[in-house]
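Much of what follows relies on a compact textual record of a protein's fold. A complete example follows; check for yourself that the lines match position by position.
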Amino acid sequence: MSGTAQIGVTGLAVMGRNLARNFARNGLTVAVHNRTTARTDALVEEFGGEGTFVAARTPQEFVAALERPRRLVIMVKAGDPTDAVIQEFAPLLEEGDVIIDGGNAHFQDTRRREKELRGRGIHFVGVGISGGEEGALNGPSIMPGGSAESYESLGPLLERIAARAKDGTPCTTHIGPDGAGHFVKMVHNGIEYADMQLIAEAYDLLRTVAGYSPAKIAETFRGWNTGRLDSYLIEITAEVLAHTDAATGKPFVDIVQDRAEQKGTGRWTVQIALDLGVPVSGIAEAVFARSLSGHADLREAARDLPGPSASPLGAAEAAVFADRVEQALYASKIVSYTQGFHQIRAGSEAYGWDIDLGAVAAIWRAGCIIRAAFLDRIRAAYDARPDLPGLLSDEKFAAEIGAAQDDWRTVVAEAVRQGVPTPGFAAALSYYDGLRADRLPAALTQGQRDFFGAHTYRRTDREGSFHTLWGGDRSEVAAG
């Protein structure tokens, strides 16, 4: 082979195949390889008319087909399979070549791989790709992390295949060094978990408290999608709720078991947030809500516990309540993004990535699962004030959430009164109230810690750390 392919993709399951087709459709010559050669042959036979593909049957043929610097995209399962492919191809590459991992890798694995390959003169780029199968084919949001030099080589190719925002900007940018791209993709998925949970709670309230049918709720969501809640997830929620099961004639949502699954990125977001000391309570509640849904035996055993039964409102009251739910959903959504961007900032500071939060918001405006109209406003907020402590410090977002708070509180209170679980709405509201409180009860917590463990505390009236001798005269001593 003559080394004519500008980029190569190995691992041709649905995501890898669609990504290869996307590159080819955008005028690039693409080398394709799969451990099972039948997949390679099938791709070229079925989609060869979409562009120029170079089929490779062996790793050696695949590498030989790539022009220098070689750019090799790995699209296999995260973890050990990715390491195995890297170990297979790295010895065939030369200094300056680029290995790109497009899977859902843990960012710490990406940091390890980048360091190992850097020592061999090979660039390693961890790329977060959001948009699912359709996005991979037609334009995803792409979050690459790695050296600036690697982005000079790879960036122009990613920009050709990425989704484009309404202003024509490609939804990709150099996120930062080593694992920054996969870290941002992880937080994206955490926000996605929270967003989906909040939407599910809004649905549950409209059905249980307002007494709306799934078809009526679909109509409501379509209306919301024309306003400030305009987003991909609201759009598809309306489609799901409007769908009727062909076999039973029932609403589709009624024939699906109420057990939500997860692949792990939401859990990673919460775990890393704990390590960083960042409160992502909305994301955490979304993860735990999925976990609770899966414990069918526990739920069945607790089915007869005492508590209120929901009583649907009258038509006029229901309409008013639906408007309040929209307010609660929007306010809670702002909190979810506030927590997610706080985590990205904390990760950037901890690992020295210097991530541009405005740029992150910009590349989430199209292609990805959490794409939403108000991301353009988030971008503008961080562009205007790169040091913005959080979205709720932005004047416009603060005003909106302030205007929504009365309805938000009414919705949460009504949910409690009627026994409808709303962990996402309630956690978001508690976070909001925690931020605006003059003093938190953490002062008492610190006193308890000093009592049983001599962990010390800081005073409000003078500098230093102190410890009270609790067992005797309770005198105070300076602790440092």
